[in-house]
Design a protein that fits this description.
Blueprint lengths: L1 H14 L19 E5 L6 H16 L3 E5 L5 H13 L4 E4 L8 H9 L4 E4 L11 E5 L1 H15 L4 E7 L4 H14 L4 E8 L4 H14 L5 E5 L2 H10 L6 E6 L2 H7 L6 E6 L2 H16 L7 E4 L2 E3 L14
Parallel strand pairs: 1-2, 1-3, 3-4, 4-5, 5-11, 6-7, 6-8, 8-9, 9-10
Antiparallel strand pairs: 10-12
């Protein structure tokens, strides 16, 4: 018996079989269609606006319903809204947590109700709760801009990093950036929590640039435009500002000849949304899903921005 088990395990290792993959029996579609929930950390954010719209368009085109509620960046409200959606009888949910750990009580309730979770863009604190996860390769998004900074400023220098420790996606991006510049002569003179918020990042940079006006670069993550406003107000001309997202506003800046925005680790919310919907229906069709489905990220600069169009998301 032990010999048979060993052979089975060996075959599984050699074939790359993943025991964490999630399989489900095909579900019978109810009369009137499926009812899906949707929650993201902040539905006023243009990034999430396009994700919600893309998911809604696909779901409704299939004759199904999407219930979307906005927690406005408040984890307590997000948990309450998930409770409301459970009470409304959702069959499954598209979920992006405002706080990776703080969302766990809601995940317990979803698990108890037997509701599948397609986790998108930001990982929850415990992936064992979710059916599968899809989102940008955030580590690579940070790494590609770090690599670009090293290439363009080979002598190194002082830099400012704006991060957000409670947001796993931002943590991954910051880790990618920091790994890329490690040992390359860069000195992080300030690393501050911008909470993924444009106004917060502007306030931070206003103060930081008064103390460190000679920095060679600012890594702004999703708050690069706030860093740009502060740098412009301070009259800086030589600082390189890097962001993450590849938003229409960032692309407009990259298209300008005199903007301080140097590059962005670009992602595609449209691809994230389409992949989320595809995975949801595969699950209900009874297909086996892997634990993660990364979506490609890439470096966007003035040299290639026009390939992706200046208006709208890619």
């Amino acid at each position: 018996m032990k010999k048979i088990l060993s052979v089975v395990l060996l075959v599984a290792m050699l074939t790359g079989f993943c025991f964490a993959s999630v399989a489900a029996e095909a579900k019978e579609r109810p009369e009137g269609g499926w009812k899906f929930g949707f929650t993201c950390m902040d539905q006023s954010n243009p990034f999430f606006v396009i994700i919600e719209k893309t998911i809604r368009d696909a779901v409704e085109a299939n004759g199904d319903t999407l219930i979307a509620l906005d927690p406005a960046n408040k984890i307590d409200l997000q948990i309450t809204q998930i409770e409301d959606m459970i009470a409304q009888g959702i069959d499954a949910i598209f979920l992006n947590p405002q706080d990776a750990q703080g969302i766990l009580p809601a995940l317990d309730q979803l698990k108890e109700a037997g509701i599948p979770i397609i986790n998108f863009d930001t990982e929850v604190g415990d992936l064992s709760y979710v059916t599968t996860y899809t989102g940008s390769d955030n580590y690579n998004a940070g790494k590609v801009v770090g690599d670009d900074l090293v290439k363009k400023v080979p002598a190194g220098g002082d830099i400012i990093v704006l991060d957000s420790p409670t947001m796993q996606s931002v943590v991954d991006r910051t880790n990618g950036f920091m790994d890329a510049i490690e040992g390359k002569g860069f000195n992080v003179v300030a690393q501050q929590d911008a909470k993924g918020n444009l106004e917060v990042s502007m306030g931070l940079c206003d103060d930081l640039l008064q103390a460190h006006g000679d920095v060679v670069a600012i890594f702004g993550g999703p708050t690069a435009l706030g860093a740009l406003a502060s740098a412009n107000a301070a009259g800086l001309k030589d600082v390189l500002i890097y962001g993450i997202d590849g938003s229409p506003d960032i692309k407009a800046e990259l298209a300008k000849e005199d903007s301080l925005i140097e590059g962005s680790g670009a992602q595609s919310p449209i691809s994230i949304a389409k992949t989320s919907v595809e995975l949801m229906y595969k699950y209900f069709d009874g297909e086996t899903l892997d634990p993660r489905y990364p979506v490609e990220t890439f470096l966007m600069t003035a040299d290639n921005v026009k390939e992706y169009g200046i208006e709208g998301w890619q």
